[in-house]
């Protein structure tokens, strides 16, 4: 199947353990108009950032937007968005490794770890 790969980088945590406002670091260079988009993300936590990226893609004219996350954090309240594809559901703990960081570090940890 023909496809293009592009990047988008939006951060709510900015190397902290609690979220703030979304900072748009990089937006896709390719047009999203009439395209099917798959957003691939490390973790679906509160869902605020993924929802903003999803909405941005639709605003740019994407015909369909799907999301895949490595980790979905199980919370006791409803999130503003659900991932279409989930690798692993985890408890509500701070997790890091395999691309997820702890205060900007440990993204390269060879495993998924949780803070106590």
From TrEMBL:
One of its GO terms (cellular component) is cytosol. It catalyses: GMP + diphosphate = guanine + 5-phospho-alpha-D-ribose 1-diphosphate; IMP + diphosphate = hypoxanthine + 5-phospho-alpha-D-ribose 1-diphosphate. GO terms for biological process: GMP salvage; guanine salvage; hypoxanthine metabolic process; IMP salvage. CDD domains: PRTases_typeI (cd06223). It comes from the Bacteria. Residues 6-102 form the Phosphoribosyltransferase domain. This is Phosphoribosyltransferase. It comes from Crenothrix polyspora. The lineage of its organism: Bacteria, Pseudomonadati, Pseudomonadota, Gammaproteobacteria, Methylococcales.
